[in-house]
Amino acid sequence: MSQSGQGAGGGGGGGGGVDISTLSVQQLSALQARLSQELEHLSTSYQRLRAAQARFRDCIKSIQDGVEGKSGGTPLLIPLTTSLYIPGTLAPTSSTGAGASASSGSSSTSSASLLVDVGTGFFVEKTPRDGIKFYERKIDELAKNLADIEKVVTGKSENLRIIEDVLRRKMVEEQPSQFGAGGGTTNPVAAAAVAAGGG
């Protein structure tokens, strides 16, 4: 990656970039701080998406282990918070009476149903199989988002490395000029001693 264009833009900005070697130390420092902040934000977002992905996998496992193939009255632990659970029992899988199930001759009334959180506080009733498919789609969507974030982080990390290299060189180059600018007055104590001795 060159030291212009994308490096100065802090991301995939395309053409029209500025050669960062022409920027001052102050400008490079500001750009470095901005990129570092963006990377920190992306890292936080990445961790949150990974945590959401893990929760969806737990939901699938809960359906498979706690609902499918289980009959009513099965004991279970109901989560109130992430660390607080209360004991409970699985409700009967049939939402209608036994008489209705027998008269219909259909197994649909005996199939289990779930309330699936589809986001923003809305719940939709689904069968265990549909619930698993829903969470699998969510996991796949998050996987794509995570891959996109990884690409952005890789690009910004490379840009930050280039900026830090240029900034380091400029600071080293400026140090000799700063010492030389003082001339003979860089040590006022020594200058005063010479003046006193000459008197």
From TrEMBL:
Residues 186-199 have a biased composition (Low complexity). CDD domains: Prefoldin_5. SUPFAM superfamilies: Prefoldin. It comes from the Eukaryota. Residues 177-199 are annotated as: Disordered. GO terms for molecular function: unfolded protein binding. GO terms for biological process: protein folding; RNA polymerase I assembly; RNA polymerase II core complex assembly; RNA polymerase III assembly. One of its GO terms (cellular component) is prefoldin complex. InterPro entries: PFD_alpha_archaea, Prefoldin, Prefoldin_subunit_alpha. Belongs to the prefoldin subunit alpha family. This is Putative prefoldin subunit 5. It comes from Cladophialophora carrionii.
